[in-house]
Amino acid sequence: MGTNKAFLRLNGKTFIEIMLEKVTAYEEIFISSNEPDLYAFIGIPVVPDRANGLGPMEGIRASLEAADFDYVSFLPCDAPLIPRGLAETILERAKGHDAALPVFGGRKEPLLACYRKTLIPLLEEMEAAGIRKAGAVFQRCDTAVVDLAALTRTFGDPKDYLINANDPETFQSLANIPPD
């Protein structure tokens, strides 16, 4: 996109504001970012990576380390159509496992997953081995797979909400969608 996607605007709100509205049920909320000053106006703690250049897995590891709770749910800020309540459902499926991984049409959604703090040593081990892909952790731990297609009655068709604004064309297509 060439810009910080958290500050793209949709229906008068930034993506980060939209995403924060979806997690009001949580007792602990923070933002994973290496640019904490950009988010100061929001008034929510920002968790930076321990080191730059390690990719999304480092953001997940740092967030798990910072969290007070055993499980941490993630929402990608560039996917503003993710329905309210989905993160809570994924969290419920994670209980008793190391993680819960949403899947739709064979595609894994590691940045919409829920991870348990017990994964910190595994994530550190993977980082040390040069493994940067966030989805790689699920092959190495006890993962509950969450079939998003099976949740269509509750949350709608995943193809309608699993839209990441990764390019200007996709972002423009989101502008035509009414707010939830």
Explain what this protein looks like in three dimensions:
- The chain has 180 residues and is of the alpha/beta class.
- The protein has a domain at 5-25 and 73-174: Spore Coat Polysaccharide Biosynthesis Protein SpsA, Chain A (Alpha-Beta Complex).
- It has helices spanning 15-21, 56-66, 86-94, 120-128, 152-155, 158-161, 168-174; strands spanning 9-10, 13-14, 31-32, 46-47, 71-73, 99-104, 107-108, 114-116, 143-147.
- The strands form 3 sheets. Strands 5, 6, 7, 8 and 9 form a 5-stranded mixed β-sheet that branches. It has a two-stranded antiparallel sheet with strand order 1-2. A two-stranded parallel sheet has the order 3-4.
- A hairpin with a 2-residue loop joins strand 6 (99-104) and strand 7.
- Helix 2 (56-66) packs antiparallel against helix 4 (120-128).
- The longest helix has 11 residues, at 56-66.
- The two termini are 24 Å apart.
- The model has no long low-confidence stretch (mean pLDDT 90).
